[in-house]
Amino acid sequence: MSDTIEYIQENRDAYLEELFELLAVPSVSTTGDRLDGCAKLVADVCRRHGLEATLVETVGNPIVYAERIVDESKPTVVFYGHYDVQPPGAEELWDSPPFDPTIRDGSIYARGSGDNKGQFLTHVFATGAVLETEGEPSVNVKLLIEGEEESGSTGLIEYLEDDPSLVADADLVYVADGPAHQSGRPTLIYGNRGILSVEIRLREANTDLHSGNFGGPIPNAAWSMVELLGTMRDSAGGIAIEGFHEDVDIPKRAREMVAKIPVDAAGLKTELDLAELRVDPDRYYESLLLEPTLTINGLESGYTGRGKKTIVPHEATAKLDMRLVPDQSPETVFERVREHVLAHRADADVEIHGTFPPMSTSLDTPFAETVYGALSDVWSAEPVELPLLGGSLPAAYLQRELGTPVLVVPYANPDQGNHSPNEHLDVDWFENGIGTTAMVLKRLGRVDR
Ligand code: BES
Ligand code: MN
Description:
The protein is an alpha+beta fold. The chain is built from 13 helices and 19 strands. The protein folds into two domains: 2-192 and 359-446, Zn peptidases (Aminopeptidase, 3-Layer(aba) Sandwich); 194-248 and 292-356, 2-Layer Sandwich (Alpha-Beta Plaits), CATH 3.30.70.
């Protein structure tokens, strides 16, 4: 273990420099901007560390494919990640500019530091470190780094469904993404919740109207929307859409695993300055990981500017997302939502805005023990195991099209702040991430598939 770990420690500044070069690229995908330059840079970094890299063109941004083939008879691990990032949001909310990476208090502040540039680069650096200190890794190494994860992974999904020949021999998909468990212990995750995003639009009159001249007899689109949304929840706060839960199927062992996850509800309430949780503390992880949600992401109607404006709004829009659990299908759930909305408002517009199915990997996957061991050795702490992560990834497509287990192993500190202002990746976590992947690359070849 120690030669490679020592090498990684000695090269820390060089790794940070390469990460900073990538973090300085504002590779926001949701605006539809082309990110070819960023993809080329990722491929270049891979080449500097002993991987062969090419760009795979897609309908959207290119996928960076990189490999180090050791021996075709050895197992193959595919590391999945993404080089696109979320929009930074208002610059004044950042203590340093989002695309000018800065280290403060041992942490790298930049958009994409944790989600996901600083995480997928660990695999590149680990491959190079193993090559320098040990010779070839014990497995074939492949990287699939896409440029559209934050906007729906269209190109990746098409690639996987059409002809994923470059990665067809995969035995394991490994994803370093998301923050680790709140306790700060290293974390090993066997799946993710899915997502279904929906937009609902209602229209009443053909224009906004004076609330004195017309208010009373004329319907108000804002109230219509609020009432419609109200029909989707029962009095206990549960989801009241008929058929919504029909395919939910959570295995007993997932529940047992969740029961063992430590919860610090008081700490969380302090951190978020929150008076109450929606559930009892001992149901926190059940609610976060094993149950679907119906979230209002945003509402728009009428006048929300400064001062007042006495109008009856004629239009209202609601954006919703639903986090889905095994075995819900986003398409079926969308049908149930559409039926519900149309039963209340036959003239509503209901539009689907993208989906990822939920994914769960067998808790008995033979590779998990090796990953668990690498995490506990590098962090000198016992890992926390989660059956699912709350957020969503296109991992179900990787699992389905490649027929492999998928393990999610977050290398970011719990307070990473992905998608928020001041997103940051602790340098220690970054370094331990490189070390963990290096250990995995050295040991995974011993696993009996
Ligand atoms: N890194 C996240 C997934 C994630 C979120 C992992 C929280 C762990 C905890 C990923 O980049 C992401 O943001 N996914 C989106 C998908 C959506 C844009 C289709 C999500 O979950 O909202
Ligand atoms: Mn993200």
